[in-house]
Amino acid sequence: MIRSALLVGGMALAGSSASGVAETLHTGGPGAAVVPPGGTFPADRDKGSFHAVRFTAAEGGMIRAIAFEGVYSAGERPPEDDDFSVVLFADGPSSTTPGMALSGALKLDVANRTDTGVMESGRKVYHYQANFLSTCYSVATGIPYWLSISNDTSVDSASGWEWTAAPGDGQATAVSSGSQVEGFDAQGSANLVYSLESEAFSYPDDGLVIVRPIVTEDGRVILKWRAKPWESFYVERSVDSKSWDCYTGPVYASGSRVRVIDAVPPVGCAFYRVRKSQWSVVNPNDYDGDGVPNGCETDPFYPIENASVQRDEPGDATDVREFQCSADFDGDGIPNEIDEFPHRPWIDPNDYDGDGVPNDVDEDPYDPTNTNRIGGGE
After folding, report:
1. How many domains does the chain contain in total?
2. Contacts of 338 (CB under 8 A, 6+ apart)
3. Is residue 158 domain-resident?
4. pLDDT in tens, 61-72
């Protein structure tokens, strides 16, 4: 059995479409290239501002990418890297607010960010083409859903991002000031600018890396490529080099190499491609850079989750995460890095079990019920 594969650092490769033209499943308001914006809606996780818009899918299918437009706060230069996330909801009972979130917030990787040349209240309007990183949403024709897009400008010290809307009433909107996945209140209607795409957008051609996969005798496919320490990547797989599915990610470089094994590749031909995430690890002890150690997080690769939701209430010793997060595991006042026994709260470092018998003469310095001294006696 022969399997051919290409592994690339971008979306453009021989044998597949590199045009970036995706099949549109649904479109909201027209973009700035068609009509000047008619307003903006704050949508920044750092500011706790979220908006959602109701839509009924014109075409059913898998959403692999999304295009939308927005502005940064007045006078702000756009950050080097954006940190967008999307949530798709079922329709709420009253159809005026989102219902149940169909998943948590899914991260986006921005393939292209373009200055439209149009201004909104003195701010440049940008057009974004972004792909889902690790999973995708599926929508059905004629079924109403709600969509929320947000950025996190705190990663680059910017002061806010807002989703633009075209003039006109458009579709029902809702607003939340605390969470992107719940707590929305009805707001009115707006023509928010976005489109849902069934195919991923092409990435710029710079930084493409081609790697030959290894096919083992037992049929597994091994992919290996060089990278800088802690760079992150997403691997996609296809059976025809045209339609791609998210296979795995993020995967991180350990040292100078990345290694991925597909133990059960598709029958026949299998194609692979890898793209470097715009968001790569800086601190190996805090993958997403949100200030919460990896061991303390439910998702150490997602910076939207911070200490306030990751750490347990103080004093709840039943929560493993609190134990892992502590700088003094056993609470004896001695920091873990200099504590000889960081997981055992000894009363006295010279008397581990606190039985009054010094360690050097204690028959069992770890058993407080044994007060026998070495050589006999108590």
Report:
1. 1
2. none
3. yes
4. 888 889 999 999
